[in-house]
Amino acid sequence: MDRVGICRAAALAFCLAWATGAVAEGPPLLELPVACDIGRSCFIQYYVDSDPEPSAKDHTCGSLSYDGHNGTDFRLPTMAAQQAGVDVLAAASGRVLRRRDGMADTSVREAGRASVKDSECGNAVVIEHAAGWETQYCHMAKGSLRVEVGDRVEARQAIGRIGLSGLTEYPHLHFIVRHGGKIADPFAYGAPPNSCGAGRSLWQPSLQPLLAYRQRGILNAGFAAAPVTMATVESGDLDRKRPNIDATALVAYVRGIGLKAGDVQSLVVEGPSGQTIAENRAQPLQRDQAQTLIFAGLKRPAGGWDRRFFQARYVVLHEGKLVLERIFDIDLQ
Fold this sequence. Notes:
This protein is mainly β.
């Protein structure tokens, strides 16, 4: 057969493949599956575990994963943010394959793991895309699902809201990508196990700077008028009850995520002239931490607050180098 004949045969084969749907399609380019601002009103807590052994590594060989974790966790900073409502969005166009609703929004710490056996994903939606791709959306709020099985959905369409259903202790979306039934890491598609930064991103190019990997982050920071606990920070009550001039105490607090073994935290509160009035210089962390809480404060002086403006500086050092910092202030009204 001459070259022209070969080309005609190749073209015919392509046309037949296209007509029968046999032409291979690439992976979908994913949109952000949550209606929030990454790094401000929501945060990536965990990535897919890329280590096939009984240990865990994220796609950079960092510690932001745990053994067997098969998705990406987009976390809200407080339960108050969850209760206000944050939409879950379809990451790509497709058809609703499965759904589940009706599970309570309750921390597994309260309900126990047995209560969510065989339904760890909680209220959920699975969307089928072209060429064997699927996306799954877990832990959605009870009664919030807006789609039914068989519905056609478009990218960025709201399909529900972030909740606390299933096997979870904090409000977040657990987002899973599969191809041919196998887990695909949207940050490192096609990467060999433990390859540290290999593979390619499945996110829309415009999203990739926003979703750049961050080893550590600050989930909450502010001032309170009473002792601070992990529970009061998680509830969001501290955001609604900011200290005023009548406050009996002034406590600066920071909740960090992703801190590493050896990190040294310090939190210093200063008055308007720069003098230190409270501080907390913590010991080096003995192990990697999913989340940490540090606070520093003082009681109201006998004569009342003689100043209104206070500033706090939170610093994390690792081997003497600055790796995380936040400066925040308050003007007592």
